[in-house]
Amino acid sequence: VDYFLEETSSLKISTFAKNISANGICILLVEDVKINTTLFLTIHLLDGEKSIEAKSGVVWTKSSNLLSSKDKNHFEAGLEYVDINNADQARILSYVIRTLNTKIDS
Fold this sequence. Notes:
By secondary structure, this protein is α+β, with helices and mostly antiparallel strands. The chain has one helix spanning 86-105, and strands at residues 2-5, 13-14, 17-20, 24-29, 38-43, 52-69, 72-84.
């Protein structure tokens, strides 16, 4: 996932998604952002198709130790899509279902 904050549109940051659904995504951040902050996302699903663009809003944040190092704090942020193409949203749902089915069959 790549993202940028609405107020810093020239600075795109690459990060990881902790989880994803058709309605939102949880990503890891190197900065704490406020609730209701707008983030623009480029989501790269592992399905070989084009990336998905979405406008999202921060619903919650919390400190995270998933990527933390001694000199840097990291945060998890729960984002809700506020502007996403319906076909892209359906593609995310299909991707999640396929991924879950693959894990169940394994």
